[in-house]
Design goal:
The protein is mainly β. It is 2% helix and 36% strand. It comes from Salpingoeca rosetta (strain ATCC 50818 / BSB-021).
């Protein structure tokens, strides 16, 4: 069902319960209202793109979307996922004006969630989402202050987050990351990547226990507090250089494969917690440490200790 380039002002699907293929509402200056009626299942793509005067979009009774949801309309101030519980493809929200996005009843997305260039977006709450099969990409969102991962337990692929206004990152119930965590200007779960974050002062790993890649927080120049939570192992090192940390407690972390770089902070104390081994180097240069037992740290660090 392709309703692209139509002159309609309103489209209503009425009593239609199921559509086997795509529904495309694309490229219109006149369309201001879309009512999906009784639609519950869609076998293809839902495409709501380049509708210049659409201000609200409600998924209504639709519960299962077999392919992708694409929303790109410049005056859109409200996106309501309604009864949607599962998307077997990706969700892409692009260049719209809504201020909050919440997954509501949505529990599963088999591929990616991409939210890009939504200039008015302040908060992204993924609390309802339990399974994400692909990337989480939240980029070029200049006002976004909070990201809540909620009930997600595992992130198997990339997470890319770019927001100058970001103040809060809540890992929620996340227990496993398959790849890197990188807070850096250069995009690198294979990657959690929060880029160009000017105001982030606290990072709490909460329930996260393992990271298969590198944790790089070296671009967070205002970071004052790093809470390791239940993190037990890092597979490719940790970098928190050039920040504002005054205290470092490794907590339940027992094993770091790779280097640990804590240089050029404001650290006065470093507590080893349960840390047993760092296979690479430990760099604590440029910190006003009041106490540091090099003999103890030399038994933990298999490489060199720089101080």
């Amino acid at each position: 069902m392709d309703l692209s380039r139509s002159d309609f002002t309103t489209i209503t699907l009425g009593s239609t319960v199921s559509v086997g293929g795509d529904i495309k509402f694309r490229i219109s200056d006149t369309l201001t209202s879309i009512d999906l009626g009784s639609l519950q299942e869609l076998g293809g793509v839902m495409d709501v793109s380049e509708l210049q005067n659409l201000e609200a979009f409600d998924m209504g009774q639709l519960t299962v979307l077999e392919q992708d949801l694409e929303v790109n309309s410049p005056k859109l101030t409200s996106v309501d996922l309604g009864a949607l519980t599962r998307v077997n493809g990706s969700i892409t929200l692009y260049r719209s004006l809504f201020s909050m996005f919440t997954t509501q009843q949505l529990e599963r997305v088999d591929r990616d969630v991409r939210i890009w260039r939504c200039d008015s977006l302040l908060s992204i709450d993924l609390s309802g989402l339990q399974t994400l099969g692909g990337d989480l990409s939240l980029q070029y969102l200049p006002r976004r202050e909070a990201v809540i991962l909620g009930n997600l337990a595992t992130l198997p692929h990339n997470v890319k987050v770019h927001s100058a206004a970001l103040k809060r990152v809540d890992f929620g119930q996340l227990t496993r990351v398959e790849g890197d965590i990188s807070f850096s200007i250069v995009t690198k779960l294979t990657t959690l990547d929060l880029q160009r974050i000017e105001y982030l002062t606290t990072v709490d790993f909460n329930h996260l226990r393992t990271v298969g890649g590198r944790v790089d927080l070296s671009s967070l120049s205002r970071l004052e507090e790093l809470r390791m939570g239940k993190l037990a192992a890092l597979s490719r090192g940790l970098s928190v250089a050039n920040a504002q940390l005054t205290h470092m407690d490794f907590g339940e972390l027992t094993h770091v494969s790779g280097n640990v770089d804590l240089s050029n902070n404001r650290l006065t104390t470093i507590e080893r917690g349960r840390l047993e081994v760092i296979t690479g180097n430990l760099d604590v240069r440029g910190n006003p440490l009041s106490s540091f037992d090099s003999d103890v740290w030399n038994t933990i660090v298999q490489g060199q200790v720089f101080m």
